[in-house]
Design a protein that fits this description.
Strand order of the largest sheet: 4-7-9-10-11-12
Structural class: alpha+beta
Shape: globular
Strand content: 25-35%
CATH topology: tt1808, chain A
CATH superfamily: tt1808, chain A
Number of strands: 14
Mean pLDDT: 93
Low-confidence stretches: none
Radius of gyration: 16 Å
CATH class: Alpha Beta
Distance between the termini: 22 Å
Length: about 190
């Protein structure tokens, strides 16, 4: 359901804030993209991954969030990009000060693929997150039960691949944190 909203040529965060709350859109460089409703499998994966992050982060300075929560990646330069990652981790409390969402790049973003968003998450958002300085980007593929982890190094992402047999995937931005993919993919 990757549909660009073509009513105007260029949208901003101010436009985004006027759209109906029951519609889900992402805004990338001023172009609006309709978001599909997550599948049951995507929701289950999201819940399992988020729970592991949330448990690890209890009492720590970083915080995990799940969709829908708006992330304004270029709030200081045109404010024409708003995304809603499936899961994100923010370690800088200042990025949460407006109370409406995240202003600036989260430290980690997790996107869970569905047939309708593969190109959007693996190309468009990959490029956007790399350019915006997201330090760690995870792409979860429920179809083949894999995880691609991208770490920002020198402005470019370096990739590592994991599958459902991996029980201790390191979360590089969170020292000592690992995610059990066997648990995440169980029953999916």
């Amino acid at each position: 359901m990757e549909t660009a909203r073509k009513l105007e040529e260029h949208y901003t965060y101010a436009d985004y804030c006027t759209w109906p709350e029951d519609e889900r859109w992402e805004l990338i460089d001023g172009v609006a993209y309709a978001m599909a409703t997550p599948t049951v499998a995507n929701q289950r994966l999201s819940k399992k991954i988020f729970r592991q992050f949330d448990v690890f982060l209890q009492g720590k300075s970083c915080e995990a969030f799940y969709a829908p929560l708006s992330v304004r990646l270029n709030a200081d330069a045109g404010d024409d990009t708003v995304v809603e990652p499936d899961i994100l981790v923010v370690c800088d409390e200042k990025k949460l000060e407006d109370g409406k969402g995240v202003v600036g790049a989260p430290d980690l973003i997790v996107e869970i693929l569905s047939p309708s968003n593969v190109k959007h998450d693996t190309f468009r958002k990959f490029t956007l997150y790399q350019k915006s300085g997201v330090r760690e980007y995870w792409i979860v593929d429920p179809e083949v039960k894999t995880l691609m982890v991208y770490l920002l190094h020198g402005g470019k992402y370096l990739a590592s691949a994991y599958d459902e047999s991996d029980t201790a995937v390191p979360v590089h931005i969170l020292e000592g944190c690992t995610i059990d993919l066997a648990e995440v993919f169980e029953g999916i």
